Amino acid sequence: MGGRQQDTFHRLMAGGRLATMDALTAGGVDLDLETVFDFGLRRLLDGVAVLVDGGLSPGT
């Protein structure tokens, strides 16, 4: 990923307004836009997999 999204992401990270993200990066976690996107997508797909496997009903 790149372009405007990457630029915006870097501006947000450098702005000091995201305390949790600041704490993560201060702890040595390398956060770039692609890494964050991949992490979020995996969590989303893990949840869908649970739903498809019958672990949850759509109303919960």
Beta-strand portion reads under 5%
Helix content percent band: 55-70%
- Structural class per helix/strand content? mainly alpha
Distance between the termini: 34 Å
Tell me, what's the shape?
elongated
Largest sheet features = none
Count of DSSP E strands?
Answer: 0
Report Rg.
Answer: 16 Å
Mean pLDDT: 80
What order do the helices and strands follow?
A: HHH
Q: Indicate the low-confidence ranges by residue numbers.
A: none
Total helices: the number is 3
Describe this structure in words.
The protein is an all-alpha fold. The chain contains three helices and no strands. The chain has helices at residues 3-14, 19-26, 33-52. The radius of gyration is 16 Å and the shape is elongated. The mean pLDDT is 80.
Quick overview:
67% of the residues lie in helices and 0% in strands. By secondary structure, it is mainly alpha-helical.
Considering the chains and any ligands shown, give keywords for the structure:
60 residues, 67% helix, mainly alpha, elongated
Task: Indicate the topology.
Elements lengths: L2 H12 L4 H8 L6 H20 L8
